[in-house]
């Protein structure tokens, strides 16, 4: 073949073949030839590798953790924009370096240790706090992991923990570092302040048509209709399917007997939570109570009524904070205990009533047992439907055909916004709304979207039917709104100039806020005890930075937390919370963790030098491009 090409390379046939090859490479590319079979390897440390499967598992788990913290769904794109993908790779490289060192000394995780880790993982437990193999398989499937791959990951985690314990057990941060962090975290400040707000004395009728038209032309991108999408979906919802199952009495009895220790009425307690302005004051109240045992006097001395402090009859998970609940549910009846940190300040707890937990009889929980059995059956039914629908999709059937074939409802929606709002102003009604919207607005019309499963086991099949691009809103429809906006902007500009003048005068008058207040006829307000995290509608993060930068008696100016006003004030008090054993321990724990992380990174760098290391961060981009084109289930 090569001889044939060489002989005819200068002839018409050879030229035609070369053109054909160039055309083919221009369409399909040659990247795979040069990337090679190991393109999914992101790093090599000694004999260890960081592969794409392990990386994506960790990346997705980190996204879930951040989403839970923020109480909203964080997309993969948003996570990458924040640099999370590099942080995950960085951490994986450190862990791989540690495991490579473990390999050098032949450290291995025992089967018993792995079994204990998996059985104690909350993510694999059902509503009765028991390990559930179905949930285990579901979680692994959601993360694209096989059981063997997951066991390998857990074995590595176990080795990392053992090495960390052996190295870091007796490492403690220096006291000077603890003192600095203690001051930063527990310093408190009080301020006196005034608020300068826009006067809104400019009416929209004072804004000319010419000004509003100029504003419109300069800000046309602000006056567009929002992009909407038309899409269809079939959803398999456990709660919808579960009600279709009739459960026999024999099944109820059998299930209850197998899980009877999960059915109990939790312990309840009635207790009072009495707040104080300082821990010292709370301890003094406890001392007085130990002498007279008069709780009513303790309340009256604080100027409180029983209704002010009564928390009601509640379970331990219904308390204001975990710390308060733990303290209350470990105390004896008619015992005053504390102090404990609460949102109202250092507080004492007085337990009035204790109702012990009790086992619940079958008749009391029959409805709950039936629902649990129905949900288990619904989950099995959903996986059967999932397999059937996937076979139908593979054969080229449409969602409409699949819905009819399986007697399932299909929803076909038009002009839905990226927050799930329909054209009539209502929102799509499904527990999978966020997942559906994320996938609808993350894909094009010609892309086959893989089915998506949520943490509960609900599954949805989605198709994007049409993309309705944003359109320019005519000036005539928004001219009045524009005039209002211009008037508001002018009022804000005037307020900002006024606030700057008042602030400069305040500094020139030796920070005499009372004089400034009288001069400008603005009332002075007093803050409570402020920490660096006391953000609210008045104190923005920016304001708190300014407050904690200034010295006592100095002035500050900043934007308020919510709105367009300015806050101007004086630092009236700087204090430090008492150094309790608990607070000191919390600071020491944080610093110790930071110290351990720093040392772990340093050790990992040394291991990489000894074991030889290759890192390929540029492959991350190709990995995510592949994921987005293939989808995941």
Written overview of the protein:
The chain has 633 residues and is α+β, with helices and mostly antiparallel strands. The protein folds into five domains: 2-35, no CATH class; 41-170 and 589-630, Triger factor/SurA peptide-binding fold (Orthogonal Bundle), CATH 1.10.4030; 185-209 and 475-576; 228-249 and 363-468; 264-359, Chitinase A, domain 3, CATH 3.10.50.40. It contains 25 helices and 17 strands. The strands form five sheets. The chain has a four-stranded antiparallel beta sheet. Strands 11-4-13-12 form a four-stranded antiparallel beta sheet. The protein has a four-stranded antiparallel beta sheet with strand order 7-6-9-8. Helix 1 (2-8) crosses helix 2 (12-28), helix 10 packs across helix 24 and helix 11 (209-218) packs across helix 21. The radius of gyration is 33 Å and the shape is globular. Mean pLDDT is 84; it is low at 1-10 and 20-37.
Summarize this structure briefly.
With 633 residues, the protein is an alpha+beta fold.
């Amino acid at each position: 073949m090569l001889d044939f090409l060489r002989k005819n390379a200068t002839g018409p046939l050879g030229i035609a073949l070369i053109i054909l090859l160039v055309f083919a490479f221009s369409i399909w590319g040659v990247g795979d030839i040069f990337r090679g079979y190991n393109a999914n390897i992101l790093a090599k440390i000694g004999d260890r590798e960081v592969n794409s499967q392990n990386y994506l598992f960790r990346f997705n788990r980190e996204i879930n953790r951040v989403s839970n913290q923020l109480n909203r769904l964080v997309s993969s794109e948003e996570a990458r924009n924040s640099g999370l993908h590099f942080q995950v790779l960085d951490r994986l490289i450190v862990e791989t370096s540690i495991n490579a060192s473990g390999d050098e000394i032949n450290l291995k995780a025992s089967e018993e240790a792995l079994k204990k880790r998996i059985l104690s993982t909350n993510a694999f437990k059902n509503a009765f706090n028991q390990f559930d193999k179905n949930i285990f398989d579901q979680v692994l499937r959601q993360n694209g992991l096989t059981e063997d791959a997951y066991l390998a990951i857990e074995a590595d985690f176990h080795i990392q923990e053992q090495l960390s314990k052996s190295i870091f057990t007796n490492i403690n941060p220096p006291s000077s570092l603890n003192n600095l962090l203690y001051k930063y975290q527990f310093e408190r400040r009080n301020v006196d302040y005034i608020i300068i707000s826009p006067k809104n004395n400019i009416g929209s009728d004072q804004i000319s048509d010419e000004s509003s038209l100029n504003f419109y032309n300069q800000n046309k991108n602000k006056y567009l209709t929002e992009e909407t999408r038309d899409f269809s979906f079939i959803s398999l919802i456990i709660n919808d399917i579960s009600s279709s199952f009739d459960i026999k009495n024999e099944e109820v009895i059998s299930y209850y007997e197998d899980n009877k220790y999960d059915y109990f009425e939790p312990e309840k307690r009635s207790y009072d939570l009495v707040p104080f302005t300082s821990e010292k004051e709370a301890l003094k109240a406890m001392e007085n109570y130990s002498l007279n045992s008069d709780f009513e006097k303790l309340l009256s001395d604080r100027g409180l009524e029983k209704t002010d402090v009564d928390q009601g009859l509640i379970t331990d998970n219904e308390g204001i904070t975990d710390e308060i609940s733990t303290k209350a549910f470990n105390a004896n009846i008619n015992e005053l205990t504390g102090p404990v940190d609460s949102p109202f300040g250092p507080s004492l707890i007085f337990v009035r009533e204790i109702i012990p937990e009790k086992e619940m009889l079958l008749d009391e929980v029959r409805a709950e047992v039936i629902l649990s059995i129905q949900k288990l059956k619904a989950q099995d039914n959903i996986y059967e439907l999932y397999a059937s629908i996937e076979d139908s999709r593979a054969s080229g059937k449409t969602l409409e055909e699949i819905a009819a074939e399986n007697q399932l409802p299909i929803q076909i929606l038009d002009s839905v916004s990226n927050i799930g709002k329909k054209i009539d102003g209502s929102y799509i009604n499904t527990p999978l709304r966020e997942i559906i919207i994320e996938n609808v607005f993350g894909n094009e019309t010609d892309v086959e979207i893989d089915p998506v499963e949520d943490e509960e086991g609900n599954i949805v099949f989605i198709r994007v039917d049409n993309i309705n691009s944003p359109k320019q809103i005519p000036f005539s429809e928004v001219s009045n709104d524009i005039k209002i906006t211009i008037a508001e902007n002018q009022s804000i500009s005037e307020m900002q100039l006024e606030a700057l003048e008042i602030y400069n005068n305040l500094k020139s008058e030796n920070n005499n806020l009372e004089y400034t207040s009288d001069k400008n006829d603005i009332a002075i307000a007093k803050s409570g005890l402020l920490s660096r995290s006391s953000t609210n509608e008045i104190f923005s993060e920016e304001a708190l930075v300014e407050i904690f930068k200034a010295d006592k008696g100095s002035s500050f100016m900043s934007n308020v937390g919510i709105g367009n006003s300015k806050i101007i004030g004086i630092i009236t008090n700087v204090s430090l919370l008492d150094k309790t054993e608990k607070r000191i321990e919390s600071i020491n724990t944080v610093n110790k963790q930071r110290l351990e992380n720093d040392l772990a990174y340093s050790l990992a760098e040394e291991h990489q030098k000894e074991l030889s290391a290759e890192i390929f961060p540029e492959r991350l981009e190709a990995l995510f491009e592949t994921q987005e084109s293939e989808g995941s289930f």
